[in-house]
Structure formats: C-alpha cells, structure tokens
Design goal:
The protein is mostly beta strands and about 260 residues long. About 0% of the residues lie in helices and about 55% in strands. The protein is built from no helices and 22 strands. The strands form five sheets. Strands 2-1-3-8-5-6 form a six-stranded mixed beta sheet, with no helix packed on it. Strands 12, 13, 15, 16 and 17 form a five-stranded antiparallel beta sheet that branches. Strands 18, 19, 20, 21 and 22 form a five-stranded antiparallel beta sheet that branches. The model is unreliable at about 1-20 (pLDDT under 50).
C-alpha cells in the first residue's frame, strides 16, 4: 500500500499505492529545508528517491541519512508559494522534515502611523510586510490582551493602509495594539484613547437566570477553575444553564465575582 503524508505545518496520513509522499507547503522565506532520511527496508540505499519543488525535479544529493533541499538555487521570490513533494519507498521509515517552520512567514511589518477616532475606528499604515499575514487587533482589558478582530494583510512591498471598526469602546482608558503571528509574533506599539462612554453596571435577575448590563459590552464568564463558560457581546448573558456556585464576570473594563444560587 502507498502512504501519503501531508505536512502543512502538521501531518495528515492517507493511503495510496506502492510508494509514499511527504508534502511540505508554505511560503519561501529565504531558507532551505533539512530532511532526515532512512535506509530502505532491505538495508541497501535510502528511503527517498525523488524530490520535486513546485512540480520540478531537484538535483539535491538525496542519497544520505540527512540532506538539504536547496531552495535558494530555484530562483524563488521571497513570499512565493512553495509545494515540496518528497517521494520515498514503500515499507521504509518515512523521511522527516527537520525544520518545517522554515516555510512559515515571519512577520516583518513596521507600523509608521496609527490612530483611532472617538467612534472606535482604528486606522494604521504599515510597510516592510514579509507576506500576506492577517493583522490581529487586540485590546487590553481585564488585565490581559483580548483578541477583538482581524484584517488581512496585503503582504507586498510598499506602504499599505488598513482600517478596523472596534465594536465598542469601554469606559475610561482604552489600549489597542496590532500583531502578526507566523513563525514568531510581532507587535505594533500601543495606541490609547479615553472614552466618554459611561461606566457599565451589571445586575443579576431573581433566580440567577441572567446577568443584565446597562450597556452593550464584551463579556466573559469564568468558573472558579479559570475556564470560560460564557463569552460574547451584548447587554444580557443567559446563565440559566450554569451550575450553582461562584463565577467571575468580566465586562466593560471591570471584573466582578458573582454567586449563582
């Protein structure tokens, strides 16, 4: 039987005939891939017998217990899509890509301007983007950075401008930043704005079936073990299905302890 191993920063296994394939996909990052090769089942020769990059057979020296797929000789452009197919003999130990992260984009952007309006419209201009990675918008609330949305980055050379509408500012000082996450994460500087939004207050209904807020707000409800049991945006949280006991409710820019009876 033929086994196909698909590696797109993680492995999938499927079954075909006669031989095996490992497929590595990603973006060219000016790095080469290193492969751990095994002897074939008979103990003569090695498992890998061919390597293709974007459909073209390479001339890499593969008859070794470890070898390098030299992408630098293929005239690839930085950020270009790369599909590598490593063919190995059936019955042998499959080869292993030692550095699959070499095909993951590395955030290289620089924010040269960023501002936010009183209505929560975040705008920024960036350059030096190393690939089409999404920009993740985070807000600091409840003593941590919270994901609030994302905008797809263009990823090409030059300056690019982006906008994101924050659902709602909380009362008091609001802090925002943007980041890109690839092989490693990179962050922008923070931007801060003071909101005139009135302070939000919560109350529990009789019977502890729901929590009401005096405003629309992002919220998270945690149990005493730190697990999130409810999250979302709105002016009301249905907690009728929660077990009796203590919880923490995060809303607006506040954290409160509640008891469900």
């Amino acid at each position: 039987m033929k086994k196909v191993f698909l590696l797109t920063f993680f492995l999938f296994i499927a079954t075909f005939l006669h031989a095996g394939i490992i497929i590595a996909e990603g973006k060219y990052q000016n790095k080469n891939l290193f492969i751990q090769n095994a002897y074939e089942q008979a103990g003569v020769g090695f498992s890998v017998y061919a390597v293709y990059v974007n459909g073209k057979l390479t001339n890499d020296e593969i008859n070794s217990s470890a070898f390098e797929i030299d992408l630098s000789q293929l005239q690839l452009k930085y950020g270009q899509d790369v599909i590598i197919k490593i063919f190995h003999r059936d019955g042998s130990v499959p080869p292993r890509v030692l550095n699959p992260d070499a095909l993951k984009p590395i955030p290289t952007f620089e924010v040269i301007a960023m501002k936010m309006t009183n209505e929560g419209l975040l705008t920024w201009t960036a350059n030096k983007e190393g690939g089409p990675l999404p920009y993740l918008i985070e807000q600091f609330r409840w003593n941590k950075w919270v994901y609030v949305g994302e905008v797809q980055g263009i990823g090409t050379a030059g300056e690019h401008s982006y906008t994101f509408q924050v659902t709602a500012l909380h009362s008091g000082e609001n802090r925002f930043r943007i980041k890109q996450a690839g092989y490693q994460a990179k962050y922008s500087h923070e931007i801060r704005i003071i909101s005139s939004t009135p302070r939000c207050i919560y109350s529990m209904s009789k019977g502890s079936k729901q929590i009401d807020f005096t405003c629309g707000t992002l919220f998270e409800v945690y149990d005493y073990y730190g697990s999130i049991v409810k999250k979302g945006y709105g002016s009301r949280v249905d907690i009728a299905n929660l077990q009796k006991g203590g919880y923490y409710i995060c809303f607006d820019n506040s954290i409160a302890e509640i008891k469900k009876k």
